Amino acid sequence: MGKKATAKKRAGTATPRKKNPVPKRWSEREVVDAFTRWQKANPHPKGELESVNHFTLLVAVVLSAQATDAGVNKATRALFAVADTPEKMAALGEEKLRDYIKTIGLYKGKAKNVIALSKMLIEKHNSQVPKTREELQELPGTGRKTANVVLNIAFGEPTLAVDTHVFRVSNRTGLAPGKNPLEVELELDRVIPARFKTHAHHWLILHGRYTCLARNPKCAACLIRDLCLWPEKTL
After folding, report:
1. CB-CB contact of 117 with 141 (8 Å)
2. pLDDT of residue 82
3. For 181-229, what is each residue's pLDDT tens digit?
4. Strand runs (DSSP E) across the chain, as ranges?
5. pTM of the predicted model as reported, rounded to 2 decimal places
6. Which helix (H) or strand (E) is 199 found in, with range?
7. Greatest CA separation for the chain
8. CB–CB of 24/206 below 8 Å?
9. Of 3, 84, 96, 145, which residue is the catalytic one?
10. CA distance 152 to 115
């Protein structure tokens, strides 16, 4: 390399490295179009976890981590018949709780958390499920996603819970690309119009669970296939 070229490089005039390309995103019109289609197809979407009150909803969501809703429902039908309040759950005890949920993945750790959160609800919240994300996240086994689900379903808050389905759909389609669930959640909150937010995470979960599958997505049956920016989609 010559002296002039070396000098230019030292001076910062050398050719800069290429930055990672900005991921493609939907326009505001396309976001509205997509959610309008989902709303028309399913005006009142609901979560698929079964519960009988706010407490059992919280427990079901905690148990659903790394498990299917169907598997959780199968276990909790009998459980909630005998323990549908924090007092009854705490009285049941960790060992007996394990027997009810042993078909669910990571059941030992989850049983410990459910008993602990039941006791905390009794001691700190008068046996009521709290209505703030901060208080919910203080409960054992309750992370941001769980808190968002409870706030949305139990209290009608426009929170956006990002599970594996929402994360995949948001990144794959170009709706709300992000490197981690929090990035995706914040981007969804930014781009989704307020009138759609109450049901948004249900539409996204259902779309990922039944249409935009991780393997062999059903692109031909997709309501938003013309908007989707995924280069591997099949039409």
Report:
1. yes
2. 97
3. 999 999 999 999 999 999 999 999 999 999 999 999 999 999 999 999 9
4. none
5. 0.85
6. helix 194-210
7. 83
8. no
9. 145
10. 23
Is residue 106 helix, strand or coil? coil
Contact by Cβ (8 Å): 170, 204: yes
Tokens of 194: 């307020």
Exposed e or buried b for every residue in 138-159, given b needs 16+ CB within 10 A?
Answer: ebbbbebbbbbbbbbbbeebbb
Instruction: Tell me the C-alpha distance between 16 and 117, whole Å.
Output: 53
Task: Indicate if 163 belongs to the active site.
Answer: yes
Catalytic hit among 19, 163, 189, 197 = 163
| Burial annotation 199-214 (CB, 10 A radius, 16+ → b, else e) | bbbbbbbbbbbebbee
120: enclosing H helix or E strand? helix 107-125
Catalytic residue status for 9:
no
What CATH architecture does domain 54-155 belong to? Answer: Orthogonal Bundle (1.10)
- 28-41+159-221 folds as Endonuclease Iii, domain 2 (1.10.1670)
All structural domains of the chain with their residue ranges = 28-41+159-221, 54-155
- Whose CA is closest to 183, among 208, 160, 165? 160
Let me know if the fold of 28-41+159-221 is the same as that of 54-155. Answer: no
Task: Tell me the two tokens of residue 198.
Answer: 């109450």
